[in-house]
Amino acid sequence: QVQLVESGGGLVMAGGSLRLSCAASGSFFSINAMGWYRQAPGKQRELVAHPTSGGSTIYADSVKGRFTVSRDNAKNTVYLQMNSLKPEDTAVYYCRATAVVLGGMQEFWGQGTQVTVSS
Fold this sequence. Notes:
Layout: E1 2-7, E2 10-13, E3 18-26, E4 30-39, E5 46-51, E6 57-59, E7 67-72, E8 77-82, E9 91-101, E10 104-109, E11 113-118
Parallel strand pairs: 2-11
Antiparallel strand pairs: 1-3, 3-8, 4-5, 4-9, 5-6, 7-8, 9-10, 9-11
């Protein structure tokens, strides 16, 4: 199975930046896609940034131009650089990955990391 551990969350003032990391470990043949979702209080979990099957990355309209996702395949780690943060970016951020394990392709989620943006 795959364990995803996020880090880098915290409290930041509006206009500031944070960089989230998500490292995958465990027993798997390969990691396919790695991306980010978030869930604000009282709201459904939503996509932030995630690679598509075509090789591009889809971003939520609300974060386009401010957030950038990158990946270090050698470290099985995905990053989310968040700039020009706004109070509405406050949420728990979750890493999602699809990986090939003994049972085939499966989806995995991290435990989440809190991002709080103060105005």
